[in-house]
């Protein structure tokens, strides 16, 4: 009796006649070779104070790894909300670095450049025959979007709220079916093997204004107000006014990134200094900062500007000091920096300490 006669489907064993993808599917082996645990280790080392958001990222990565996603949609669609400089875009860079070994291994579109409705065609390419148009071309990096059989593609729509309504509507088919047909009609970009991320600051200003009003109340009253109306609720109300329900319903996960808190600042400075030392490695140089020198970069920091401002302060205040010293003392490979009365001091003789 055959399987068709019995009504029972018989799974055939994997053989050499099957393709690699078929063999993986038949034996239940995940086709993606990245490890969610390794991705999360890097994220938790570099994204500070965003545990709730990272926990959701971890769930998403496991679903993608297990290949449970619908074959007719993108692998995942994630919207990341929060104020500037809290790690939203950096999260995507680190995921790309963990999976591909390069933090730029993804397609990024700055939605701020698509603020006017007449720029909507830039996503799909200008109509055929228009002056300056390139038929079959668009803003998308198809290689980064497509990924491969063993690694997912990665797409980032950055600062989503700054795009025109027409552009947002143009994305709905991408989020729904995982396909985008170019205006010229000659090509369709496939997002079905792609993890799509979107970032937005929408509602962040309203949430900050709400917190500033509460700051005049006694501590217990502040806690009661936040329990009744949390900042997340404020942000979601603004989000619902900004984006159509049809668009929001196509998003799998909405993550809320919190404002950078003061207790996270020392660790964020350490991360920026580690990046600087990595850049100095090709010159066989290294810098060491005392606790006082590190504190110089975060004391008095306005948390509204997030971690990005810390990096800018290091670039504008520390890097010039290093550049001048190394140019004048090319033989010096290690520097020890201190801070006294708000002034950074170079102490090369103490480079072996700390």
Account of the protein in words:
The strands form three sheets. This protein has a five-stranded parallel beta sheet with strand order 2-3-6-1-7. A three-stranded mixed beta sheet has the order 8-9-10. Strands 4-5 form a two-stranded antiparallel sheet. The longest helix is centred in the C-terminal third of the chain and has 23 residues, at 306-328. Mean pLDDT is 85; it is low at 127-132 and 350-354. Helices cover 44% and strands 14% of the residues. It has two domains: 36-202 and 243-256, Rossmann fold; 262-350, Helicase, Ruva Protein, domain 3, CATH 1.10.8.60. The protein has 15 helices and ten strands. It is α/β, with parallel strands linked by helices. InterPro entries: AAA+_ATPase, ATPase_AAA_core, Clp_ATPase_C, ClpA/B, ClpA_ClpB, P-loop_NTPase. Residues 74-253 form the AAA+ ATPase domain. One of its GO terms (molecular function) is ATP binding.
